[in-house]
Amino acid sequence: MLLSSCGSSGVYINKAYLNNNNIDGKTLAVLPADVYYSGKQPRKEDWYEQEQTASQDLQFEVQQALLDFKNVHTRRDKQYPVVLMDAYTVNKTLLTKMADLRTAWTMPPDSVGRMLGADLVIKVRMDREHFMSQSAATWTNIGLTVLSGALSAINNGYPPEVEYVKANNFDYEISLISTATGDTISRYAINPRNRDDITGVNHMMASKSVVFAGK
After folding, report:
1. Which of 97, 122, 133, 200: disulfide with 30, CB 3.0–4.6 Å?
2. Closest by alpha carbon to 36, among 25, 52, 24, 15?
């Protein structure tokens, strides 16, 4: 399990693929992330633009997590050294082949990787369902806590079950995919509590990944 404190999660490693294919020294590209917002949209927010900004933010964050791990750790057992393509180069190359980076979201990741000349790609997807503002969720939960305390006093010290609210619901997934076969080599999936948890997942992924961004 991965970061169970952050919500439901799971890790998949395709051991059969790794036993039959050598990824040592292969070229790895982190693709622009698929980002989709749904739920209650505030009137003044442009979610289309926000999705595209979040896409590149996540792409560069995942790349940086891999580099940060390489800079402070030696390669672990069962980690394979790979050549990491710079995300700026990835995006610049893709924009010579498609109208915008969002187009890559709709394409098979192995196909996008072959456009880049990469052997492996990291595909990231984040879905966010918005319920209310963070301040509204915070104040609602404060009220529920006060109510729970009052009911506990009435009920001989036994607090009632209270279901607290949250501003957003997230689903997050990181997949390592072979561009030659389309096989998923590894996948990390999580239902994080918030955006900060996702940053933690990216760093955890880098530490547990089967790839290492260096020799």
Report:
1. 122
2. 52
Q: Is 4-131+166-212 CATH 3.40.50.10610?
A: yes
Angle, vertex CA 152, rays to CA 151 and CA 156, nearest 5 = 120
The answer to whether 91 and 56 are in contact (CB under 8 A) is yes
Across the chain, which distance is largest between two alpha carbons, in Å? 69
Contact 171, 127 (CB under 8 A): yes
Is residue 84 a contact partner of residue 63, using CB atoms and an 8 Å limit?
Answer: yes
Amino acid at 189: A
Task: Report yes or no: 121 and 177 within 8 Å, Cβ to Cβ.
Answer: yes
Q: Where are the beta strands (DSSP E) in the chain?
A: 9-13, 27-30, 34-39, 80-81, 83-84, 120-130, 168-178, 184-190, 211-212
> To the nearest whole number, what is the mean pLDDT of the chain?
87
Q: What are the start-end ranges of the E strands in 32-142?
A: 34-39, 80-81, 83-84, 120-130
Residues constituting the chain: 215
Percent of the chain at pLDDT above 70? 81
pLDDT in tens, 28-57: 999 999 999 998 888 878 999 999 999 999
CA gap 176, 187 in Å, rounded: 6
Query: How far, in Å, CA of 69 to CA of 73, rounded?
Result: 6
pTM: 0.83
Which of 37, 79, 78 is closest to 169 using CA atoms? 37
Provide the residue ranges of all domains of the chain, joining segments of one domain with +: 4-131+166-212
